[in-house]
Amino acid sequence: MAEYVPKYVGTVTKYVFVESPMMTPGELALRAYEASEGVLIKETCFGLQVTGEPAAVDRLIEEIRSFDPTHIFIKDRGFPPGDPRRCRANLGGARPGYLGHEREFRILRYITHGLEELDRRGEEAEVPEEAPKREKKPMLDIKRLQELIETEEP
Amino acid sequence: MAKVFIYPATSLILSDLVARFGHKPLGAALGIRERIQTGGVDSPPLQITPEEPKRGLKYAAVEVPSGVRGRMAIYGPLIEEAEAAIIVTEADLAFGCMGCARTDELILFSLRQSGIPILELKYPTNEEEGIEFVAAVRKFLAGLPKEGEA
User: Fold this and answer.
1) Domain extent for B101
2) pLDDT in tens, A49-107
3) Staple partner for B127: which of A96, A113, A154, B63, CB 3.0–4.6 Å?
4) CATH code at B80?
5) Contacts for B90 with CB less than 8 Å, ≥ 6 apart
6) A58 or B46: whose pLDDT is higher?
7) Per-residue three-class SS string for chain A
8) Residue B75 predicted with pLDDT over 90
9) Which residue of B has its CA nearest to A65?
10) Measured between beta carbons, which residues in chain A are less than 8 angstroms from residue B140?
11) What digits encode the pLDDT tens for the residues A16-45?
12) Inter-chain contact A111–B126, Cβ cutoff 8 Å?
């Protein structure tokens, strides 16, 4: 069995999706480069991947969101960019996970509309009833488990 | 800042909304990243080693297939860590092989058993539902403790 030596240890990678009539991924990439300050940026067909130290990535993400807050969406990624286990340059075809993104990408316009409308309405937006508050249940105590086993309770 | 488990665990929309409204989304990427950044034996593509089904024994019985236990080794710690959860029911993108399907059932069962606050929604199919979706998520997250309160 081969030894595994990870790359980019201690970094975080995030996807940035842009679904905007005002901004293309290329334009977003240019503006992100200007604010990158050492964070690795990879342009993709749907937006960007940013990789770097967690604090630097958080700062850049905050900056990127401000470009077009209701049209830019961000999520975590487990793999670094260009990883041969995921990159379609090595595998061919769509990257695993892309189809899920494609499915959600079609819904993003409704989310954008929701964000814009709520911003416009402020706090007055109608919402469904709040979920009932519940306390976190404690784990089954080992002594109690032993008692259950001994008493053979159903 | 509360830790909010999202289901589907790879959801872009939920991950974004949770982070946007000031909380930490717990999704599959965090578990995968931990394994990808840990050295050891090369086990592509996801660095799931034979150790994972053993760790999964904490969340599923020994007779449960190793595929489910291996997946639960990723999701189980996240569910334990979660202080709240947002579930999109009937998410058509959350499908896969039997291992994925059974793991999804176990994730939902574990979340509902854990007693943490849960918001259950459906993906919007039009603009009106989009407003309701975002409003529901915003209100749910506003009720969770922010940084410094917990």
Assistant:
1) 3-142
2) 999 999 999 999 999 999 999 999 999 999 999 888 888 888 888 888 888 899 999 99
3) A113
4) 3.40.50
5) B122, B123
6) A58
7) CCEECCCCCCCEEEEEEECCCCCCHHHHHHHHHHCCCCCEEEECCCEEEEEECHHHHHHHHHHHHHHCCCCEEEEEECCCCCCCCCCHHHHCCCCCCHHHHHHHHCCHHHHHHHHHHHHHHHHHCCCCCCCCCCCCCCCCCHHHHHHHHHHCCC
8) yes
9) B20
10) 130-131
11) 999 999 999 999 999 999 999 889 999 999
12) no
Residue B135 phi/psi, 5° resolution? -65, -40
| CB contact A54 to B (< 8 Å) | no
Ranges of each domain in chain A:
12-124
Q: What is the pLDDT of residue A87?
A: 84
| Domains: count for chain B | 1
Q: What is the mean pLDDT of residues B122-134?
A: 94
The CATH number that domain A12-124 falls under is: 3.30.70
Separation of alpha carbons B28 and B6, rounded Å = 9
Residue B117 resides in a domain: yes
**Which ipTM value was assigned to this complex?**
0.91
B50 sits in which H/E element: none
| Residue A6 touches partner B, C-beta closer than 8 Å | yes
| CB contacts, 8 Å: A2 with chain B | 41-42
Cβ contacts (< 8 Å) between B83 and chain A: which residues? 136
B131–A117 CB contact, under 8 Å: yes
Q: Could you say which residues from 11 to 40 on chain A have a Cβ atom under 8 Å away from some Cβ of chain B?
A: 11-13, 15, 17
